[in-house]
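fwd from M.: "can u put these together and see what the complex looks like"

so here's what she sent:
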Amino acid sequence: MTAVARLATFEGNGQDGPPASSLSPTPALQVRRLSKSFTAGGQPVFHDVTFDVPQGQSVALIGANGAGKSTLLRCCLRLVEPDSGDIAFHGTDFVAARRQALRRMRARVGFVFQKHNLVPRLSVLTNVMHGALARGVGPRSWFQAIAPGAEREKAMACLEQVGLADLADRRADRLSGGQSQRVAIARSLMQDPELMFADEPVASLDPAAGEGIMELFARLNHDRGLTLVFVSHQLDHALRYADRVLGLREGGLALDAASAGRTPGCLRGLYD
Amino acid sequence: MTDTATSRSGPKRFAAPEPLKAALFAGGLGFFLWSLAGAGVSISELISGLPNMGVIASEMVPPATDRFLPMLWSVLTTFQMALVGTVIGVVISVPLAVLAARNLAPHPLIHAAVRGIVSFLRTVPDLAWALFFVASVGLGPFAGTLTIIVDTVGFCARFFAENMEEADPGPGEAIATLGGRRIDIVVCCIFPAALPAMINTSLFALEKAVRSSVVLGLVGAGGIGAELAVSMEMFRYDQAATIVLMIFVLVLGVERFSSWSRGRLIGRA
């Protein structure tokens, strides 16, 4: 039996998961039998992936390059449309949501990209203000200069949380990689997210900056009870900063285990 | 090392042309030679016209200053036509460019339709538009201004759309991820990214409009071009020389201003 097989518990993970209509409202995120392939009839990126993420849990998604981690995360927000399966946030069906409803639901979920995706020529504060776009603030959150006072204060508070309040008026393209990623996190916090996805958030950062970002995520998870799902290639991060580790391999969920007591060596089987 | 050098002689210096390419080249050359006749190019006529050129050039010196102030006023009118036409054209171009940009158009059919309209505005020559507007709204600078608006829209909408298509899609994806609408993506991500290039294009459009507005006067669309046409028809080559010098100063001034602004913008972008 491989290390992966020994670790796999597959709780709530398998072919016989409940249909979307009977999803419990308790978990922050429920994924049922999610499948995606990029070519019709071709090799699926992943197939029949099923898992739940309870409110407040921190989950690391690991796997080899091309295992489908980023695609799975993007499918969860329908940035990439899944071929089949169900996704629910706090019991609300996400797959069936039409344009307006989809926007409202996305507004409740933060997403931090590997390449932070800030608007380079705008100020840090304006970039953070964009997090309020879908919360009914409308065009006044386009630029910090026209933003309502309360929203502006909130954006400053979000910057305070990530330790960058001093750089509020600096242009985003004048920041270091680590600072940019912190601003991207502040932008997500501006959404008041119930759940946050992070797609290899430290992949382009040096070890110290990466460690700082992961500490920030851990603090948000611990202090705010923010549910977190992050993709990482760093197994020590997965074990240190996540309550639970999900592993993708050969198009399926090959690992679903608590991180406590595990060592990176236990997880290496996923990469064999 | 020597062995390697002698065993590998490298590719042939001249490869034999492929028959199809050779035929195309020969066809193109033949068409060019035929076009020389079609274009009426004649060395003998050029030589026989040289004395006339000399006479006209001599009559241009010294340039006349008797109508300096009315001419200066016409130059100002020409610049005003160019400026107003460019600004209005640029403003109209922005929403059209959003609809013409492949990554922003709400539907491929809208993208294709707007691209088609913009191409039509651009490909019809400005003199044809000027004749159309002179016939529609009468002689004068308004016809010229309308011509420049149409010409600027044809030019700017196309390049603005390309500037918008070249914008990094990442920030837009981030805005979509947090629930933003298409208008949010356009205003918050695409415009800031494309703005330096759009300003650059607008400055080129202003330069183009100034040059174009001079010529438009020749068909009655107002400005200094009308003065130039009258001077040439009245054989007042000394006045024509003054007008040509004024046009030179105007165009050079606008080009210098445009280059200076562009340099500052690119420095800041």
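replying to her w this: The domain at 6-103+240-272 of chain A is CATH 3.40.50.300 (Rossmann fold).
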